[in-house]
Specification:
Blueprint lengths: L8 E6 L4 H10 L3 E7 L3 H11 L2 E3 L2 H4 L7 E4 L6 H10 L3 E4 L7 H13 L4 E3 L7 H11 L6 E9 L4 H5 L10 H4 L3 H17 L2 E9 L10 E8 L4 E7 L8 E7 L2 E6 L2 E7 L6 H14 L17 H16 L7 H20 L3 E2 L8
Parallel strand pairs: 1-2, 1-4, 2-3, 4-5, 5-6, 7-10
Antiparallel strand pairs: 7-11, 8-9, 8-14, 9-10, 11-12, 12-13
The structure holds nicotinamide-adenine-dinucleotide.
Length: 365
């Protein structure tokens, strides 16, 4: 079965849990063609091959012998990302890697280095950064419209059942340190942690407490963290999968000249002081932002597959253009590393009872 469009970039997906979103996003993307899928689970593999009309492989080694594959989307359990991604890099194929890069800095760095050494592109999935509202907020902070920032937080009040933790393949991998790298922070919270850190310009120190309260799972189902950002502002990160039945995902940003509050990617508050003191214009801007970003949104509050795949489609189309223009992807491996650093530091702080400076982490920069 040759490629339908000889000019399309050929994509393959490894791991067919969240990987099914990758399949849909590739089929929806301009300039991309899904040529193959790969999974060790025969039932998932056969179902996906029939649904998406592509070739199916039982191992990554077999997949990488397929000459139509230019890019491999890696959506296996997190602790296997580097192992699979490094094989892909060695074969000269580009990589789109699900979040987080891997479970620790050593493995994340090995993946980033392999991509660099083999001259392939490594894109990291952090689809929330690509949301138009996220980009507007980043622009407002970067251009100084909020003035000097003094506070930023994210509060992820989600819910996952015990069946969720018992499921997946290998069964029970979620919430383990070896395969998930942690719990509510590293798995569910990392999108929001990455977003907050990206907007605020990076995290300097964390002081964390974590606990496991309502699940039979190795890592935390509640984590709460005091943060100092590199820009000197203070903040807070709270992530839980024990907030029944799955509540909100909030972000608060306060600067000298204004405040932004977002819940589930919807604008709640957008108050930015105008240089000319025009309060009507200030209120009009808030109304405009609430109208633009106030509708219903999909949320993973109680179901991970409910997040939708639009963000993944943007990542796929960006990879197509990055290959054609020979540039870095929109979120390259190096850009996704800091989120892993923050989560590793949170675990270290919770274990030692000490504030952790990210620059002092083993493997830190
Ligand atoms: N971006 C997002 O919003 C989002 C949401 C959920 C999960 N994820 C990420 O996606 C990844 C997968 O999570 P999931 O919940 O889909 O897990 P899952 O357990 O449901 O699916 C993983 C799949 O990988 C397959 N697999 C395991 N080892 C393999 C191997 N060596 N070769 C080929 N296939 C293999 C399994 O059979 C399974 O079908 C994780 O890194 C997770 O953090 C991202």
């Amino acid at each position: 079965m040759a490629k339908k469009d000889p000019n399309a970039i050929g994509f393959a997906v490894v791991g067919l849990g969240m990987g099914r979103h990758h399949c849909r996003s590739i089929q929806a993307a301009q300039g991309a063609e899904l040529v193959a899928i790969c999974d060790i689970d025969a039932a998932r593999r056969e179902k996906a091959a029939a649904e998406y009309g592509c070739r199916a492989y039982a191992s990554v080694d077999e997949l990488l012998r397929d000459g139509d594959v230019d890019v491999v989307n890696v959506a296996v359990p997190t602790g296997l990302h580097a192992e699979v991604g490094i094989k892909v890099a060695q074969s000269g194929r580009h990589i789109i890697c699900e979040k987080p890069l891997d479970v620790n800095l050593e493995k994340a760095d090995a993946l980033v280095s392999a991509a660099r050494d083999h001259g392939v592109k490594l894109a990291a999935i952090f689809q929330r950064r690509l949301h138009p509202l996220s980009k507007r907020i980043k622009e407002v902070v970067d251009t100084g419209r909020l003035g000097r920032m003094h506070y930023g937080d994210i509060h992820l009040y989600w819910y996952r059942t015990q069946d969720y933790y018992a499921g997946g393949n290998p069964p029970g991998w979620r919430g383990t340190f070896a395969l998930d790298g942690g719990g509510a922070c590293m798995n569910q919270g990392i999108h929001s942690i990455d977003l907050l850190s990206w907007i605020m310009g990076g995290v300097e120190t964390v002081y964390a407490k974590t606990g496991t309260y309502t699940h039979d799972v190795e890592a935390e189902d509640v984590g709460t963290v005091l943060v100092t950002f590199k820009n000197g502002a203070l903040g807070n990160i709270t992530c839980t999968t024990a907030a029944y039945p799955g509540l909100t995902n909030d972000m608060h940003l306060f600067g000298q000249d204004g405040s932004i509050v977002v819940t589930d990617d919807r604008v709640v508050t957008w108050r930015i002081v105008r240089a000319d003191g025009d309060q009507d214009a200030e209120l009009n801007e808030e109304r405009e932002m609430q109208t633009l970003y106030g509708g219903t949104t999909t949320s993973g509050a109680s179901d991970p597959m409910a997040v939708g795949f639009d963000g993944h489609t943007i990542h796929v189309e960006d990879m197509v253009r990055a290959i054609k223009e020979n540039r870095h992807p929109i979120i390259a491996g190096e850009d996704a590393r800091h989120a892993v650093e923050i989560c590793v530091a949170i675990q270290q702080s919770a274990t030692t009872g000490k504030e952790i400076r990210i620059a002092d982490l083993a493997g830190g920069r």
